[in-house]
Write a structure and sequence with these properties.
952 residues; alpha+beta; Isoleucyl-tRNA Synthetase, domain 2; Isoleucyl-tRNA Synthetase, Domain 1; 7-stranded mixed sheet; 6-stranded mixed sheet; binds ligand ANZ
């Protein structure tokens, strides 16, 4: 019987659905294992062969774990909110939900063809109100929480209010935007609005003033990468830096826990390193400087407290609140001019640091160590959002300070012994401090760092400033709070309305607050976000429902928030929802959470290192603090699948000024004689680099009359390895492969391409090999061209036992390491061996079927049933190997004469050396080498070589 993959795959897809083979429930009698793929954004282009790579890899693991007795959760869903659907909606008027659902259906169809073991009953879609209910709920919880630095934990905001009532803000150690000082009496005397304003300073979800790239032309905030040279990437409209009220999440409060958690999870070193750098822990010192002839004091942050004696000027960030306080009347005009200039610069421009810019404030600060007065400057190279937004500049030891000093002609004082003030010496962390001068100045108390190493000098200075009360030790993190508002339509609405200008939460029992309908998806003419167009978008606090905007009276009916949540909102806790997807009472029940705990294996791209993988860790830690999630880290092990690159094809158009003439294309190997432009051509109309000329003419109207210069009667295309993308016309659709070879071949082939974590080009040349392998596999069970089913009770031959048990060992070990390509090679070897051995032993062949089941589940199910087994092969028990069969019975020795290898001989492994020697010398093949010589001695390297040393 033939291997009829089309029939087999169709049949098993149906059976799996009918029998709910992949449905999983909490089962206390079994150990759990949670496998998760990063869920896809269902784009209009559908899946290409690169997408399933990670899904196949995790599916193999999920099936393997199930065969090993685990209760495996392997869910799938859709990250369904997002920009492309919205942009498409703006262009076509099509509701983003319509396109999103159409795309989801197409994805589902494609995924189903590949035979994944997903439990579709647990599917989630982030745009489903039943799902985003819990995104909104978590946001409200964050709004109603603050972060205690002392216990490093989120706490209910009521606790903070109580404290303010009793003690005011004194001695408070919590995460906050700025220091606010008030007594209990003051707090108690504040009205509600004032209290709300103060609390906003501490909430984990807060409305904050943040600097954004505001594009008035487009009426929206743009991300850094959407701004190019000060104008919007789309449309080229000017972009300015604007302070705007935006929802923010206090991710920065969790910096230390985000760092510590990395030590407890099995992620690649490179992703951990990326996250460490992104969080950017920096231990330093804060020192207070007083402004000369004024009451103003400001604090700087430095990691090099040892350089206090080399400070020659101070620099404030342009946004620093101290700028106004230190700017003198004479300098005012120039300072204003400079601030105007900075407004147009994005943070990226400022970091790029191409040119040195700045302005003198007119004031001087006093160095607390030397008592000297030093000028205070304002410059964009100091960022408002880091440290204190103010620095002490040490041009001898910091390259940016150096450039600034050179540019504005400020003094430079070196402090390290023998260090020359040149570019190279800036990072000199080693060395002895020698030039911390002149003891005896009153403000220094004779404090000197001379003779100390840099490390010692930093420690000594920290101690000194702390004792003197002019500073403190401070740990800073680079991680910023996440901006959580978007001026978009297709996202989760905030469950928030505004009363007296302050945000209020829609009552928890009224969630979800559903996204309203609007007619067009653009911002309003007055620059409000698209939700500004919704007619029914106000909150009635009495009826507790959404009502018409015209009813807003600001007494009982209030306007609702117009922003929506960003892309990462819906993906931050979806793994928890899969544990209990239909629960209307909670994000996840205690029981489900305690059973599934966290994700054991997470598979997805490494491009999410500083986005999703930070946000979701933060989100989960917050839910952990709330007691909702029982594990602090969401993803125990992370595997980043590589990218499948496309193999693009090119045709070469001969350049011509005559645009009316039909285009002429020249074949690859003749193009050197012409002036040509390479053009991407759809790989689907090229076969083995030969262009299908008729298909090419039909591909684009402008090529209808194209002419070709051929070689050997063919048009040969050029090729290159590039990212697989629609714009390069190198996308290979998995449906086509499934149609031609079957899903099992596709699955095997994707894994056979190379290690899961490596990026590799898609190259269909090897597909036939994988397909042939499955046919051979089938051939062990069904005799060629007959219906004879071969497995029977025949005794297992020793060599077959060895082949199968070796394979069990290899595949088990390889799957644990995600080394699937090597297990597939092992399969190929074993199947060849068993074929040659004519193995018919039913038990061994049954083991073989179970082994292949994770990789090629359809063929495995079919043969499992043919073997007369009940139920699905998914519920079989993974075979165990027996050491006794792995022993090598024979050894192959290379026989050499005077060091030259001549032939090989096989002996039972326990053959004594004398016996080997005897047989070698007696062997017929040896005679021609021995002739005319005397045997001097025979050297035997055990299990490897026999060398016969001869002499005339
Ligand atoms: C004096 C000094 C001397 C510094 C020296 C460095 C080298 P990390 O390690 O990244 O934390 N700095 C502080 N706040 C800044 C801000 N808002 N914008 C730009 N630069 C800022 O770096 C901390 C160092 O970066 C601080 O230590 C400060 O310069 C600068 F030989 O102070 B240093």
């Amino acid at each position: 019987m033939e291997y009829n993959f089309r029939e087999i795959e169709k049949k098993w897809h149906q059976k799996w659905v009918e029998n709910k083979t992949y449905k999983v429930t909490e089962d206390e009698n079994k150990k759990k294992f949670y496998v998760l793929n990063m869920f896809p954004y269902p784009s209009g282009a559908g899946l290409h062969v690169g997408h399933p790579l990670g899904y196949i890899a995790s599916d193999i693991y999920a099936r393997y774990k199930r065969l090993n007795g685990y209760n495996v959760l392997n869910p799938m869903g859709y990250d369904a909110y997002g920009l492309p659907a919205e942009q498409y909606a703006i262009q076509t008027g099509q509701h983003p939900e319509v396109t999103t659902v159409a795309n989801i259906n197409r994805y589902r169809e494609q995924l189903d063809k590949i035979g994944f073991s997903f439990d579709w009953d647990r599917e989630v879609r982030t745009c489903d109100p039943k799902y985003y209910h819990w995104t909104q709920w978590a946001f409200q919880k964050m709004f109603n929480s603050f972060f205690c630095n002392g216990c490093q934990k989120a706490q209910p905001i009521e606790k903070l209010i109580k404290r303010f009532e009793e003690k005011g803000s004194e001695g408070l150690n919590v995460a906050q935007n700025e220091q606010i000082d008030f007594t209990a009496e003051e707090w108690n005397s504040y009205d509600d609005v004032k209290k709300q304003q103060i609390l906003m300073n501490y909430r984990i979800a807060y409305l904050g003033e943040t600097m954004v790239n505001w594009c008035p032309g487009l009426g929206t905030v743009l991300a850094n990468d959407e701004v190019v040279n000060g104008v919007s990437e789309r449309g080229g409209y000017p972009v300015i830096q604007k302070k705007m009220q935006q929802w923010c999440l206090r991710t920065s409060a969790y910096s230390q826990r985000l760092l510590d958690g990395l030590e407890t999870i099995q992620w690649s070193d490179s992703i951990k390193e990326t996250q460490k750098n992104w969080i950017g822990r920096s231990e330093g010192t804060e020192v207070v400087f007083s402004v000369k002839d004024s009451d103003v004091k400001f604090t700087i942050f430095t990691t090099r407290a040892d350089t206090m004696f080399g400070v020659t000027f101070m620099v404030l960030a342009p946004e620093s609140e101290y700028v106004q306080q230190v700017t003198t009347a004479e300098q005012k005009e120039e300072v204003e001019k400079y601030l105007d200039y900075v407004k147009k610069r994005t943070e990226l421009d400022r970091m790029a640091n191409h040119s040195v810019t700045g302005v003198f404030s007119g004031s001087y600060a006093i160095n607390p160590f030397t008592g000297e007065a030093i000028p205070v400057w304002i410059s964009e190279y100091v960022l408002a959002g880091y440290g204190t937004g103010a620095i002490m500049a040490v041009p001898a030891h910091d390259s940016r300070d150096y450039a600034f000093a050179k540019h504005f002609n400020l003094p430079i004082i070196p402090l390290i012994e023998g260090a020359d003030v040149s570019e190279e010496s800036f990072d000199a962390k080693e060395g002895i401090v020698t030039n911390s001068p002149v003891a005896g100045k009153s403000s220094m108390d004779g404090f000197s760092l001379n003779g100390l190493t840099v490390k010692e000098a930093i420690a000594a200075t920290k101690k000194f400033v702390t004792e003197k009360g002019i500073g403190r030790v401070k740990v800073n993190y680079r991680l910023r709070d996440a901006i959580f508002s978007r001026q978009r339509y297709w996202g989760e609405p905030f469950p928030v309305y505004y009363k007296d200008g302050m945000p209020q939460m829609v009552p928890e029992e009224c969630l979800p607050l559903e996204l309203p309908e609007i007619e067009t998806y653009k911002p309003t003419e007055t620059g409000e976000p698209p939700l500004g167009r919704a007619k029914k978008w106000a909150w009635d606090t009495e009826k507790k429902e959404v009502v018409d905007k015209s009813l807003v009276d600001n007494k009982t009916v209030f306007p609702l928030e117009l922003n929506t949540m960003p892309g990462f909102a819906g993906s931050s806790a979806y793994y928890l929802r899969y544990m209990d997807p239909h629960n209307d009472e909670a994000l996840v029940s205690k029981e489900a959470d305690e059973y599934w705990q966290n994700v054991d294996l997470y598979v997805g791209g490494c491009e999410h290192a500083t986005g999703h993988l930070i946000y979701s860790r933060f989100w989960n830690k917050f839910l952990f603090d709330l007691g909702v999630s029982c594990k602090e880290e969401p993803f125990q092990k992370l595997v980043n699948q590589g990218m499948i690159q496309g193999r693009s094809n090119f045709v070469y158009r001969i350049n011509s000024d005559d645009h009316d003439k039909a285009p002429v294309f020249v074949s690859l190997n003749l193009k050197k004689d012409y002036d040509v432009t390479p053009i991407h051509v759809d790989v689907n109309i090229v076969s083995n680099d030969v262009l299908d000329i008729e298909a090419f003419k039909a591909w684009r109207p402008e090529y209808q009359n194209a002419e070709f210069i051929l070689e050997d009667g063919k048009y040969i295309c050029g090729w290159a390895i590039e990212k697989m993308s629609k714009s390069m016309f190198n996308v290979v659709n998995p449906d086509m492969i499934v149609e031609k070879y079957g899903a099992d071949t596709l699955r095997l082939y994707e894994m056979f391409l190379g290690p899961v974590e490596a990026s590799k080009p898609w190259d269909t040349n090897g597909i036939d090999g994988c397909h042939r392998f499955l046919k051979k596999f089938w051939g062990l069970f069904y005799e060629n061209r007959t219906d004879n089913f071969l497995p029977c009770d025949e005794a297992a031959k020793p060599e077959s036992l060895k082949s199968v048990h070796k394979l069990i060992k290899k595949v088990s070990e390889d799957i644990e390491k995600f080394s699937y390509n090597t297990s597939i090679s092992a399969f190929m070897i074993a199947v060849n061996e068993l074929g040659q051995q004519k193995c018919r032993n039913k038990e061994l062949l049954t083991d073989l079927v179970i082994l292949i089941a994770p990789f090629a589940p359809h063929i495995a199910e079919e043969l499992w049933a043919a073997l007369g087994e009940q139920g699905s092969v998914c519920d079989a028990a993974w075979p165990k190997y027996d050491e006794q069969y792995l022993k090598e019975n024979d050894m192959q020795l290379t026989i050499s004469f005077n060091g030259k290898a001549r032939f090989q001989m096989t002996f039972p492994v326990d053959t004594p050396n004398e016996e080997i020697q005897k047989q070698v010398l007696a062997d017929e093949k040896s005679q021609k080498y021995l002739e005319g010589f005397n045997v001097l001695k025979v050297i035997i390297v055990p299990k490897k070589i026999v060398n016969v040393v001869l002499k005339k």
